[in-house]
Amino acid sequence: MDIEFVRSRFIKHFDGKTGNVYASPGRINLIGEHTDYNGGFVFPGAVDKGVMAEMRPNGTEDTIMAYAIDLKDRVDFKLSDPNGPRASWARYIYGISKEMQKLGVPVKGYNIAFAGDVPLGAGMSSSAAMESCFACGLNDLFGENKVSQWDMVLAGQATEHNYCGVNCGIMDQFASVFGKAGCLMRLDCRSREFEYFPFKPDGYRLVLLDSVVKHQLAGSPYNDRRNSCENVVKHIAAKHPEGKFETLRDCTWEQLDEVRAEVGEEDYKRAKFVLGEKDRVLAVCDALTEGDYEKVGEMMYETHEGLSKDYEVSCEELDFLNQIAKDNHVTGSRIMGGGFGGCTINLVRNDLYRQFIADAKKRFAEKYGHEPKVYDVVIGDGSRKLC
User: Fold this and answer.
1) 172 in active site
2) Rounded to whole angstroms, how far apart are CA atoms 72 and 12?
3) Which of 31, 192, 383, 384 is 20 to 30 Å from 150 by CA-CA measure?
4) 172, 267, 310, 381: the active-site residue
5) Residues near 97 by Cβ (< 8 Å), separated by ≥ 6?
6) What pLDDT, in 10s, does the model give residues 95-131?
7) Domain, as residue range, for 358
8) How far apart are CA 164 and CA 123, in angstroms?
9) How many domains does the chain have?
């Protein structure tokens, strides 16, 4: 992204004055899907694509003037309005502003123009990039940078919960705020302890294949799956009043089997995936420490199978891309993100890369009428002030 382009739009659509420019990245997740809201482990990294925003106080008490550069859409609203703006993108600005106020930041009126190069719908968390970018700016402009990184993460999560209707975990916002160039991060979503793992796979590369499809399903499939997991925990806790069960992280395979008949096969399969994914993340950490990328790839394929068959968040197009990866002897491949479309993330040997990409484009276009988009992964830095 180009700072001067964002700045030119900011100057044009407001009072001709410049502000401060902030940036936050999207993210990839090597392994550990749908485990964050279950208290498990995730293994994300920030990428070199994200959201950039120019922001400046406008002298009003609580009027926010916002311009979405990519959408060419402007919305003005007051923070004192209990309903907030109707435009979905503006609700992220409204929500993070309200959450930062709750943290003691005296947010007043400001102007903001923002743009992004995170591919929308690809599972790279453009929404978390927005929340983290705006929080970084508000903390700097109004909060003297006193709000901690973790509190900004939680403010972003609360924005999703309270203003956008998505009951998400903390992985996306965590990766966007804490990202570090050249490193993946293992995050324990229960304790919030994390560790940086240098990721420089000699002879391999990570590449995303974007199916460019997004299936809109009736209801709220993300929240439905979270409810399934919480239902299993509730039943296990009832059987074991002596224990403390907050999430599936606290449950064992034996306890899951005990409640299988009570919770039903759908909820059982979803919980089964989560317990397996917790184990796979730890196995991948050990494999990376030992430089065993074949083991990493094996775990990625197992994750895809679980997401497709047990958690049921895949779709025909993503399963097809995963099969193409297998056919081309790609080391590892799986769905990345919430599912129902978006990307696969692929760990591929350098010498197989060109053939894999060519075959994926050809076969996918023959079957679905368009090529998948290809994004080579570059691990970048987290939220920051640019100027």
Assistant:
1) yes
2) 12
3) 31
4) 172
5) 64, 79, 107, 134, 138
6) 999 999 999 999 999 999 999 998 776 778 899 999 9
7) 204-376
8) 17
9) 2
